[in-house]
Amino acid sequence: MGHAVMTHTQTQSTVNYTHLPTGTQDLFDQLMEQADNTASNTEYTALMKALITVTGITGVRHGEILKCACACDCPAIFDADAPDALVTEPATGYNLGRLQCPDCADDHPQPVTD
Ligand SMILES: [Zn+2]
Ligand SMILES: [Zn+2]
């Protein structure tokens, strides 16, 4: 099991995708796809803000969140700039890289592909 994390404030730095209402999951998928494909930095920032709002995630460092890209079908949505997250595939041609959440990076890190 993962490590127990003690927090002093009510932060929720990881959200379980499967715990979101179905409508929110659909919205999340749509916004994520748009954020991945937009060529506008302003739009990207706005989409990320919306994503953070709909998921209820808090404590995001640089305004970017991602769903875990781990092969284990992990439902974690997390801060893309979390120091423990593992980049398995850097962003190439798209805005978003593929990252494993801190738990997956810890439990079963995947080799980086290019
Ligand atoms: Zn994960
Ligand atoms: Zn995993």
General description of the model:
With 114 residues, the chain is α+β, with helices and mostly antiparallel strands. 32% of the residues lie in helices and 15% in strands. The protein has one domain. The chain is built from 3 helices and 5 strands, in the order E-H-H-E-E-E-E-H. The strands form 2 sheets. It has a 3-stranded antiparallel β-sheet with strand order 1-3-2, covered by helices on one side. A two-stranded antiparallel sheet has the order 4-5. Strand 4 and strand 5 (98-100) form a beta hairpin. The protein starts with 13 loop residues before the first strand and ends in a 7-residue tail after the last helix. The model has no long low-confidence stretch (mean pLDDT 90). It binds zinc ion (2 copies).
